[in-house]
Every structure is written in structure tokens, then in C-alpha cells.
Amino acid sequence: MYLISNTFNKLYIIIMIDRQQKKSKVASGEKNDATQNQAKEADKTPEQDLETIAQLKKDHGVEVKDLNDKLLRLVAEIENLRRRNEQQNSDLKKYAISGFAKEIITVLENFYLILDNAPREIIAKDEKLNNFYKGIEITHKDLTKVFEKNGIVRVYPLGEKFDHNVHQVVNQIESDKPSGTVVQVMQAGYLLNDRLLKEAMVVISK
Length: 206
What we know:
It is built from six helices and six strands; from the N terminus they run H-H-H-H-H-H-E-E-E-E-E-E. By secondary structure, it is an alpha+beta fold. The strands form two sheets. Strands 1-4-5 form a three-stranded antiparallel sheet. Strand 4 (189-192) and strand 5 form a beta hairpin.
């Protein structure tokens, strides 16, 4: 604002000097049409000068307001762009391994299949088989920790209420459970940082 005010003050001084020069030319006897027009301009009152300055300020004020509005819109657009970029970068980091995760979950499911169906009574009687089985358990636990560390969560909803967001019904059967309860899990589902990787294949009660 100081810069604008200072500019108008200088402009006013220039106008006054110019008019004094025009008055001098008129006084020296120049009588042509251009001189007459200069004389008319030079004869303006201080009030008229102030009106001229006020109009200039008004015109420049409109320009400044317009520039301020455009600047504010530009700042808002830049901020929105920054937020979108941050969200995209965050999603990229969170879900970059989704393709790999879809492949590796089959490996983890195979471990569950082995451990759930292993003949434990027979294994317990054989030291070598027992040690081998324990090795599989340790590997399974380590793999599960790696999954959890990377945001991969297993969905095994046995006994839970059916959720169409993460479950897929493959069959409905009669059951003493409330209608819509998952009574059997055919295949576990998986999430990656709350994003669905694979639906759980379930049987629910009628």
C-alpha cells in the first residue's frame, strides 16, 4: 500500500509540473488549438486534480483486488494439488506391494493347510517328524509376522456376521446360528492396509 500511495504522490507531482509548463507556454503567446487545449487542462482546479487522483486510485484499486482474487485462487489450487500429490504418494507407499502380496498369500495359505491337516498324534511319536513339524510352525509364524509388518491381514470370519465388503458367499445352509452368520470358511480373505486383496469365500446360515 505504501508503494501505491508513493506512486500516486509522484504522479500528482508530475501532473502539477506538466500543467505549470503548459501555463508557461500559454503565457508566452502560443495560440494554436493545441495550446488552447493545454490551457484548459492547466486551468483545472485543485479539486479537479484530486478527483483525477481519486479516479486513478479507484482504477488501480480494482486492478489490485482482481489480482488478489486471482492470487488467492492460485494459492488454493496449489494447495489442493499438494494434498492430492501427498495422498497419491501415501497410497503408492501403502499399496505398492499389492501385486506381490496377492501372489505370496497362496504360500501362507499352504502353511495353514499343512498345519491344520497334519496328523499330530503320529508326528508326536516320531522325533524327526516332530522336529520337522516344529520347523514348519516356526517358518509359518515368521511369515505371518512379515505379513503383519507390511500391513497384510488375514480375514478368517468363522462365526462372524456376513460382510459383503470382504466376504463372498458360496453357499447357504440350515444352521442353529442366526441368519447370515458365517458357519464355514472355504478360503480365507486378505486385506492390505484396509484395502481388499482377496475376498473370503464363506458358507453362511439361512
